[in-house]
Amino acid sequence: MRQNADINDPGGISEISRGLSVLATPPVPVRIKFSIPEGSQTSRIRWISNVKNSSILPVLVLFLLFCVVPQRSVADQKYGHERTVFTLSGHQGFVIRPAKPAADGTKPWAWYAPTFINGYPNQSNEWLFKQLLDAGWTIAGMEVGESFGSPAGRKIYSEFYAHVVQEYGLNPKACLVPQSRGGLMLYNWAVEHPDQVQCIAGIYTVCDLRSYPGLKNAAPAYGLTEDELTNHLKEHNPIDRLEPLAKAKIPILHIHGDSDTVVPLDRNSQVVYDRYKALGGPMELLVIKGKGHAEIPEFFQSPEMLKFLLSQKK
C-alpha cells in the first residue's frame, strides 16, 4: 500500500527566504513584491524583506515562483488522448483532454477519485473514460493521499476544482466518479459544494468510514483520536451528510456487487440509496449479483453508467 501523501502545506516561504538570506554578505536591504497567480497555493501578495545580497535575488525569485505556481508538463498519452500532469500546493493532479471538443461546445468533465498518478485511474477505467473522451469530455483528478475524506483533503480538492475550471474552462459543475475509497473523498467534498456538482456515478463506493477503513485507521488523517472521530462522525461520514445533495436534486448512480466483502453493499451503497431516496433525492442502484470488489467488466464496462453520465452533460 502506498504511504500517506503529505496533505499539509509543504513549507513556509518566509522560512525559506530567511534561510537563504543569511548566505550572502554584505547586507544590501532589498524589498521584493510579487503576486501569486490565482489557483496556486496562495493568492495573497507576499513580501520578502531585507535580503542581504541582491546577487541571489534572481535565483530566489525563480525558486519561489517554481514552488507556488502550478507546474505543468505533458506526461504522455492516456486512453488515446493527451494527459497533462501538474503540481498544485505540493500535490499532483492530472487532466486528460479530448482530441475534439464536444459537438455542442460545452466542456463536460468527469472527476475521478482516488487518484494516484500512474496508479489510478488505470486500464480498468479505459472503457468508460475513452468513450467519454471521444464524446468531448475531460477526465481529471487530484492526489490527496489516503485522506479518507478529511478536511485537509477537501481543502486541496477545492483548490484543484478552482484551478481546472479556470485553467481549462471546464463546466462549473463536475460529474464525480468515485471508485471504492474515492467515495469518502468525493462525497465529503460534494456535500459542501452541491452547486458545483452535476451528478455522481460510483463504483462499489465507500460511504461509511466505519465500514472502511475503520475509525481507528481513518482518525490520523483527520488529526483526531479514534474517540474524537467517533464523537464527530456525523460531521465527516458521507452517509450522514447527504441532505445538501438531495436538496439540490443531484442525480446519483451506484454500481455495487452483493458479494463485496471489502466494501459491503449493505453498509455503503444500499444505505446511501435508502437514505437519499427518503430525503427526496434521485438515485439508482445497480446491484451486480455474485460479484465482489473486483476490477471486472460488470463494473467498469457498464452501458448504464455510460448512458447515465452522457445524459447529465450540460
Structural commentary:
This protein has 314 residues and is of the alpha/beta class. 32% of the residues lie in helices and 21% in strands. The strands form two sheets. Strands 3-4-5-7-6-8-9-10-11 form a nine-stranded mixed beta sheet, sandwiched between helices. Strands 1-2 form a two-stranded antiparallel ribbon. Strand 10, helix 9 and strand 11 form a beta-alpha-beta unit. Helix 4 packs across helix 5. The longest helix has 18 residues. It is globular, with a radius of gyration of 22 Å. The N terminus is likely disordered.
Features:
alpha/beta; 11 strands; nine-stranded mixed beta sheet; single chain; disordered N terminus; 11 helices; Rossmann fold; globular; 2 domains; 314 residues
Alpha plus pi helix count? 11
Main structural class: alpha/beta
The general outline is: globular
CATH topology of the largest domain: Rossmann fold
SSE topology string = HEEHEEEEHEHEHEHHHEHEHH
**Mean pLDDT over all positions:** 83
Q: How many distinct domains?
A: 2
Low-confidence stretches: 1-54, 59-68
